[in-house]
């Protein structure tokens, strides 16, 4: 019996891992996240107290020795039924405790909700995210259409600024979820939904698609970088530039392949003839932290592996295995690494 | 063991064994480095007599494969085939949902047409699409005229319509350009 | 007391009479939507420099630089039109959409066929008009794969002893009119990028003006000027991009502030989209010799999915005025900023002297635009004097004359994943390329046009050069009333419809107005009709072998009689279901037209004949 309890305790330990890290609901790195964690704590405390009281009552009930008639709580004489005053007052007290607890929870919940809604009216910075199977198209929109920035699978946000994120889907229902910043919102084809994010701590966070959307749903992540305003403006300015031109013969060969062969049928690289609109924008591919929507970290080896045979890394994804010749592969990867 | 228990056990074992039945293969890589596309369409005239070779096994592999047809349906829109051929009704390009094929209606002939291009304006896609994608498109194009079995085609269109989806077109008697088997 | 009352009543009656006299003097003549045409007391007249007196020839598709399509010949009248009979016919041997008018100069008729763009010279002095020569330019067949709306040709231009013609594969040629030999050939458009050329060139002041087609193919639109003698490029004005490419310089003055600014052809697009943004010049160019200015419109922006290209998308769907010598822009007016429905602006632009009251006339342009509005603009500045709807529409509220901006109704923008229904006018607009005619006798503009609405859904369009860049599924159908076509006689001065004729099929043929008071047009199932220019009453009709989508012309034959010639060969965008044998089971075929004319294959077949009519001797 003791061993079973030990096993249970050991099994529960890993759950503590959810308390920290780049993809945790308990991170509280955004304003919404922080307020929801406060609410969560209130719930935990109130419900925890109730739970302990219930357990205590159960312990008392079990521990009470049956003593045949002494201090019975109820008396049943056949003709009338009577509870002892102790039981009655205990029940009244218990009811009052429940009522107070529920009211406390309701009030806490109400205020948390109101504060989240109030924040939603003050966003000053707009991003649009269009979900596809199985990658995220991130578009920084501006009233001046010539300054629009397209990137993919990466979201940069300035700290302390409320971001209004407009969400659309090109195919099936996805769901956008950044656990650390809290808030989860579906992206539904044919509709535009939105979510407001107000990050309060700089750092890297991992977002995830939270609605089953097909065979590679598990590999549809997004890296959220929260940085200072100055860093963010630097990043946006760099993303607005057209792609860097190839600098070596190998890169030039790669450029030629990418802009005239299969790659340009799907991908766009601003400033080059490659104008495909159905795959992620590659203009600044090498500046991103991950490949294939968070499936692989961005490094040379993974870039080779992904371009050579994407179906072995993410089977069923929309990027086909082309079967590049080794020379073409070297050239293409060299050029892609140039796209900082 | 009671007879009810034994019978249930036999039934459950039988169902479990059914799981081993042939499921449709979902070939995502085009074993192992992509398919090849056959050469130009065979002509109707074979001087000296028609060759009696075996049919390309990919006809069955792609032609009746629901995954290939559905990937072809996506590619048909994304690669701008709809811009010329609409959803089978035609426009700049000929209609694909009828029974007339200028350059052959067999799947390998369609794949060759897509890869090579044709003189009256069909672009050549060799090098712009992988060969596996070309075969998937060819499978979808065949399904537009009702050539493929109903359990392999999509029951839904991806665009606005209030007519039955193009993949549910009823099959007309086909008048092949290539007399060597359809 | 009684005398006082009589006096008061007499004074009142006098006041009423004087007021009525003054009111009727100041008021224009009232509109009548039925009954005989009352031409306004103050008519618009064609600008004399651009519209010389009729010499009995037809040297350019529009008849004159002012684009009146009016023949001064008056032998045929409503009284005798019923006696019109076929004089001779000519078969081109092609069965694509036949849009080009025959040209008649020096008793020779030049027939311009659609692809393969052969030109036939017929000797009108001999009976049966035998062929003098045939010019076969042999354009590339692959061009047919990138021609959005049929491999058509909208006409050639006769100038100074030469015939100037555009070929589908992007070449412009000059052919000697007497011998049929090619003098020069210049390649201007690249079919690998999706460009073709279908428009009729305009030749003036020694310059051949040519524009490209391909607004649906992700091309960058332009208008080029070639030297008529050598074929060398003189200047090229793009329709998108930086000011130096669009030839916008110091002399440019837009009539409205939203069209004035630096590099608007770049800043009104997302990055890079102006390079594939459309603005093709596939329609009509008009010319004012007095002001040395050409006027033309640009096509829709690409892709049709408007969500991909936020911004006003300059300089698409608008009208340019340029100096013919240098190509520098004088002004630009964007009729449809950030176009949502493929409402190009390439329709014909008529040059008239327009009355503005007190007996004054100003040089103006009048034009029925694709977005459904009939614009009257001062052609010196581009300022809009009036813009009234000439067809049914429910997507635009109107044109704000203070800002010059078209006001959309709002809430009907096509976005991916959601179909928008009942958009009127449909993508071909209230009127597509087929031009109207203006009669200085009646002062009316005769507009053959459409009554179509559509459902539209859009999706993310992929850009691959040489393939369509559209991203839209469209299904068209008849508008309110059930008739798909309508022929309207429009008074440009009162901006009112004077009479209209409902047609079952869409009207895709141009109109011809004649001095005898008869107006001609054709229907898509082949009826060539003559109507009384004042009342709209049908006075004669003839069933030709195929649908009529080509320009009818009128000329004086060697025997002095007035002849009417019309090309008959259905096709183009509206007739593609017949000329290309499409399948009506897919309503989105032919960019939505399959559904609108799904009965057409039963009613007409492809063809390619010229019919010539005259009164009996």
Describe the structure in your own words:
The complex is a heterotrimer of chains A (340), B (182) and C (617). Chain A is of the alpha+beta class and 340 residues long. Chain A contains 8 helices and 14 strands. In chain A, the strands form 4 sheets. A 5-stranded mixed beta sheet of chain A has the order 5-4-3-7-10. Chain A has a 5-stranded mixed beta sheet with strand order 6-12-11-8-9, with helices on one face. A two-stranded antiparallel ribbon of chain A has the order 1-2. In chain A, helix 5 (249-260) crosses helix 8 (326-338) and helix 6 crosses helix 8 (326-338). The mean pLDDT of chain A is 88. Mean pLDDT of chain B is 81; it is low at 178-182. In chain B, 35% of the residues lie in helices and 0% in strands. Chain B has a single domain (30-42, 56-179), classed as Cytochrome c-like domain (Cytochrome Bc1 Complex, Chain D, domain 2, Orthogonal Bundle), CATH 1.10.760. Chain B has helices at residues 3-18, 58-63, 66-78, 81-85, 107-116, 131-143. In chain B, helix 3 packs across helix 6 (131-143). The N and C termini of chain B lie far apart (58 Å). With 182 residues, chain B is an all-alpha fold. Chain C has a single domain (86-614), classed as Methanol Dehydrogenase, Chain A (8 Propeller). Chain C is globular. The N and C termini of chain C lie far apart (78 Å). Mean pLDDT of chain C is 93; it is low at 26-40. Chains in contact: A-B, A-C, B-C. Chain A binds chain C through residues 141, 144-148, 168-170, 189-192, 240, 242, 264-266, 268, 270-271, 273, 275-278, and chain C through 218, 266-272, 276, 308-311, 415-418, 459-465.
């Amino acid at each position: 019996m003791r061993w079973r309890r030990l096993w249970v305790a050991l099994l529960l330990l890993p759950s503590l891992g959810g308390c920290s890290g780049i993809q945790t609901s308990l991170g509280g790195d955004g304003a919404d996240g922080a307020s929801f964690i406060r609410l969560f704590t209130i719930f935990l405390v109130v419900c925890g107290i109730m739970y302990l009281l219930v357990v205590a009552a159960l312990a008392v009930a079990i521990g009470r020795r049956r003593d045949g008639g002494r201090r019975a709580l109820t008396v049943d004489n056949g003709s009338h039924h009577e509870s002892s005053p102790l039981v009655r007052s205990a029940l009244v007290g218990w009811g009052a405790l429940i009522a107070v607890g529920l009211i406390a929870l309701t009030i806490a919940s109400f205020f948390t909700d109101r504060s989240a809604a109030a924040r939603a009216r003050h966003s000053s910075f707009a991003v649009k995210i269009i979900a596809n199977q199985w990658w995220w198209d991130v578009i920084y929109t501006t009233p001046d259409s010539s300054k629009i920035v397209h990137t993919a699978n990466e979201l940069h946000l300035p700290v302390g600024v409320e971001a209004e994120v407009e969400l659309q889907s090109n195919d099936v229902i996805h769901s956008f979820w950044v656990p650390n910043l809290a808030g989860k919102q579906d992206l539904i084809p044919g509709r535009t939904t939105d979510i407001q994010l107000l990050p309060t701590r700089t750092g890297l966070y991992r977002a995830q698609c939270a609605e089953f959307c097909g065979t590679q749903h598990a590999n549809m992540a997004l890296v959220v970088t929260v940085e200072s305003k100055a860093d963010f403006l630097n990043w946006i300015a760099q993303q607005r530039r057209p792609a860097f031109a190839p600098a070596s013969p190998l890169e030039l060969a790669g450029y030629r392949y990418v802009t005239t062969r299969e790659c340009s049928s799907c991908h766009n690289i601003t400033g080059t003839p490659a104008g495909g609109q159905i795959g992620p924008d590659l203009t600044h591919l090498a500046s991103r932290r991950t490949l294939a929507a968070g499936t692989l970290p961005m490094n040379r080896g993974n870039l080779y592996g992904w371009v050579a045979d994407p179906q072995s890394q993410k089977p069923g994804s929309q990027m086909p295995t082309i079967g590049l010749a080794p020379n073409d592969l070297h050239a293409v990867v060299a050029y892609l690494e140039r796209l900082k | 063991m009671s007879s009810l228990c034994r019978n249930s056990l036999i039934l459950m074992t039988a169902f479990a064994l059914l799981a081993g039945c042939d499921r449709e293969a979902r070939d995502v890589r085009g074993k192992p480095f992509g398919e090849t596309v056959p050469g130009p369409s065979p002509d109707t005239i074979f001087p000296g007599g028609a060759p009696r070779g075996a049919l390309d096994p990919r006809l069955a592999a792609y032609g009746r494969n629901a995954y290939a047809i559905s990937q072809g349906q996506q590619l048909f829109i994304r690669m701008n085939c709809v811009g010329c051929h609409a959803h089978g009704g035609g426009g700049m390009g000929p209609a694909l949902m009828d029974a007339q094929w200028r350059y052959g209606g067999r799947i390998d002939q369609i794949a060759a047409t897509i890869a090579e291009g044709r003189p009256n304006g069909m672009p050549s896609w060799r090098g712009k699409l992988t060969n596996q994608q070309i075969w998937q498109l060819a499978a979808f194009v065949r399904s537009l005229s009702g050539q493929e079995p109903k359990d392999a085609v999509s029951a839904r269109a991806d665009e606005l319509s209030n007519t039955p989806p193009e993949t549910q077109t009823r099959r007309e008697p086909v008048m092949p350009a290539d007399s060597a088997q359809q | 007391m009684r005398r006082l009352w009589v006096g008061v009543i007499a004074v009142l009656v006098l006041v009423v009479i004087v007021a009525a006299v003054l009111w009727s003097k100041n008021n224009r003549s009232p509109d009548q939507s039925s009954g005989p045409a009352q031409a306004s007391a103050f008519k618009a007249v064609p600008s004399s420099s651009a519209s010389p007196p009729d010499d009995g020839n037809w040297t350019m598709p529009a008849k004159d630089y002012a684009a009146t399509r009016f023949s001064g010949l008056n032998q045929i009248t409503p009284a005798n039109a019923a006696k019109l009979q076929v004089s001779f016919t000519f078969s081109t041997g092609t069965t694509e959409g036949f849009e080009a008018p025959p040209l008649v100069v020096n008793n020779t008729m030049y027939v311009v066929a659609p692809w393969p763009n052969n030109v036939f010279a017929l000797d009108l002095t001999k009976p049966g008009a035998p062929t003098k020569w045939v010019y076969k330019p042999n354009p590339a067949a692959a061009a047919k794969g990138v021609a959005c709306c049929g491999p058509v040709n909208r006409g050639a231009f006769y100038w100074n002893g030469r015939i100037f013609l555009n070929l589908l594969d992007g070449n412009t040629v000059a052919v000697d009119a007497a011998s049929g030999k090619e003098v020069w050939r210049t390649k201007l458009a690249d079919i690998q990028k999706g460009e073709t050329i279908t428009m009729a060139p305009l030749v003036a002041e020694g310059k051949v003006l040519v524009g490209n087609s391909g607004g649906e193919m992700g091309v960058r639109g332009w208008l080029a000027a070639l030297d008529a003698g050598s074929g060398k490029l003189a200047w090229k004005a793009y329709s998108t991009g930086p000011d130096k490419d669009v030839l916008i310089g110091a002399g440019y003055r837009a009539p409205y502030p939203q069209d004035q600014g630096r590099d608007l052809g770049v800043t009104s697009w997302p990055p890079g989209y102006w390079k594939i943004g459309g603005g093709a010049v596939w329609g009509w160019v008009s010319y004012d010799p007095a002001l040395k200015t050409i006027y033309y419109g640009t096509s829709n922006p690409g892709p049709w999915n408007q969500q991909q290209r936020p911004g006003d998308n300059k300089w698409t769907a608008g009208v340019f005025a340029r100096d013919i010598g240098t190509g520098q822009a004088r002004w630009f007016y964007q009729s449809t900023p950030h176009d949502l429905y493929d409402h190009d602006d390439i329709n014909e632009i008529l040059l008239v002297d327009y009355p503005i009251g007190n007996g004054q006339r100003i040089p103006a342009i009048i034009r029925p635009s694709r977005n459904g509005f009939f614009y009257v603009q001062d052609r010196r500045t581009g300022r809009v004097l009036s813009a009234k709807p000439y067809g049914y529409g429910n997507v635009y509220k109107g044109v704000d004359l203070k800002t010059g901006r078209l006001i959309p109704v709002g809430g009907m923008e096509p976005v991916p994943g959601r179909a928008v229904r009942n958009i009127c006018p449909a993508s071909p607009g209230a009127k597509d390329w087929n031009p109207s005619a203006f009669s200085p006798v009646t002062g009316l503009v005769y507009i053959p046009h459409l009554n179509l609405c559509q459902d539209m859904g859009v999706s993310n369009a992929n850009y691959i050069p040489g393939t369509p860049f559209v991203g839209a599924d469209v299904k068209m159908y008849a508008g309110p009333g059930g008739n798909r076509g309508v022929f309207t006689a429009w008074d440009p001065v009162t901006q009112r419809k004077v009479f209209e004729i409902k047609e079952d099929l869409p009207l895709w043929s141009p109109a011809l107005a004649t001095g005898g008071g008869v107006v001609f047009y054709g229907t898509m199932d082949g009826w060539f009709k003559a109507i009384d220019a004042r009342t709209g009453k049908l006075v004669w009709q003839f069933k030709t072998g195929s649908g009529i989508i080509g320009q009818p012309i009128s000329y004086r034959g060697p025997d002095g009689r007035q002849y009417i010639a019309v090309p008959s060969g259905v096709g183009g965008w509206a007739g593609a279901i017949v000329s290309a044998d499409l399948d009506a089971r897919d309503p989105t075929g032919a960019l939505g037209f399959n559904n609108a004319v799904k009965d057409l294959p039963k009613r007409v077949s492809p063809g390619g004949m010229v019919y010539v009519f005259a009164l009996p001797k």
